[in-house]
Here is the input.
Amino acid sequence: MATPPYGPGVPRPQEQAPSSPGWTLPAARGGAAGPRRNAAGLARDIELLDLLAAPDALADGGLGVSRLAELTGRDKAAVSRALATLAEAGLVARNGTTLTYRLGPRLYALAARTLEATLVIEARPYLRHVAQHCGETTHLCVLRGGNVLTLASELSPRDVRTMGWEGITTAAWRTPSGWVLLSDWAEEALAAWFAEHGRDLALLDGAGADAGPRALAREEDASFQRAHVHDAASLVATVAGIRERGFATSDEEFEIGVVAASAPVTDLTGRVVAAINVSAPKARIGNDLDRIGRFVAQAAAPLSRRLGSLFAADSPAGRRP
Here is the structure.
């Protein structure tokens, strides 16, 4: 299967999961009395940020005051003052050598928090759909450096079930969610990542008092001995399999007696931004892991399309001229 340079090559199944409730902006105070004070100034600042987010600006490492003034048709002094204010807030950054401006670190931090909050809100109906259909606990996970963080869990309706993992951090190299979250990385990047994180303990933090005794975290554990990802080459091979199949499975490789299946959630560019994971006792679904994996991929695909449409509408490229 041919794969895009940075995308996982996930198939696009037709099965639809439930849609999430729509969101609307609250009405401005005072009803339809007219635009709010300073709205024009805010719009001009947003225009500058949009221009700095354009592909040409990103490729060139930023834009200077003169170019921004030319593109906006504004006075250079006014543009310079606006950029200085944005820089003080961390929304843009100035290169002292080239005197150009680029998007600032605070803007990226806000975007990351917004993405994760949006992921949780939008994914809830899909997680519930998977949990109800499979009868097993379902999780939404994201990559944090070398770790997988569970943002949300939907518990199995069964009395005997795996726990919810919200807020718990695990080593990405030991879990199918981690492999999925790395599935759009290039081979060289995977090798460098594994060199840094390939011996992280399986369960890192956030388990709390309710986690109970678990065969996790150390190389002498039986689960570690069963792991098929043990070096950079095996990670690269695993990622290749995920790109081909569209999902990953784990057979007691993280915890003895527990199996799991994960599939990627992508944004409008095809970049993997999250993973949906189903985990359950092996005695219950051990013989159906591939079928569960295909179903999770089917549920993740419409969520990816949903996220793509949301962020495409909010991006400069997605707006109508």
About this structure: The beta strands are 92-94, 101-103, 137-144, 147-154, 169-171, 203-205, 248-251, 258-266, 272-281. Residues 1-35, 206-220, 312-321 have pLDDT under 50 and may be disordered. The two ends are 36 Å apart (CA to CA).
